[in-house]
Amino acid sequence: VLQKWVNREISNFDYLIQLNTMAGRTYNDLAQYPVFPWILRDYTSEELDLNNPSVFRDLSKPIGVVNEKNAKAVREKYENFEDPLGIIDKFHYGTHYSNAAGVMHYLIRVEPFTTLHIQLQSGRFDCADRQFHSIPATWQALMDNPNDVKELIPEFFYFPEFLENQNGFNLGQLQISKEVVDDVILPRWAHSPEDFIYKHRKALESEYVSAHLHEWIDLIFGYKQRGPAAVEALNVFY
Predict the structure, then answer these.
(1) Does residue 112 have a cis peptide bond before it, meaning omega lies within 30 degrees of 0?
(2) Can you give the pLDDT at residue 233?
(3) What is the pTM of this model?
């Protein structure tokens, strides 16, 4: 599979799906759901220019420190952490880049994830401000908060329906703006959910991502997962 990918006989999308499968990740287990990278950082321009390297996220860094400003805090947290009982090892992040709650967060508008989310939240929808309501706002929150380290799920590259509230769920309204949470707010360069998926998938298969995807794979599936390389890469999880 690696050789096929290097020879460009299979797409970046296919390669990531195969890696997830080999790593034991599966659509049948929310706690081991397939994980995909955030690949863009430009969610505000009118047009998405895939020939411009600056629209892409730095794939060599864990999502928690893509914003350089967070790196210092994350490093200090690791260096100053000490478990009085000596059981818990030092870590950079207390949460994970992929977990069941995160999958339900992204897929809240689609069954069976809606029902699972409601069960998780003791029988009701979580407060609207904490829900997935906007792609630009979700990215901004990642940049501002080193404790939020969610990567993406494969649906961001092929499933426009998860961005639409086709079932008409009452997801509440945001506290400050009083805006009702309905369909997911898209980046300005996307004119519809289908257009977002089309451009996002195109970005995944772009020259820049093809040249840098292995750096992210090292963090998630490769040698930077644990040990000294993980410490150096600010990639140690609780």
Answers:
(1) yes
(2) 96
(3) 0.94
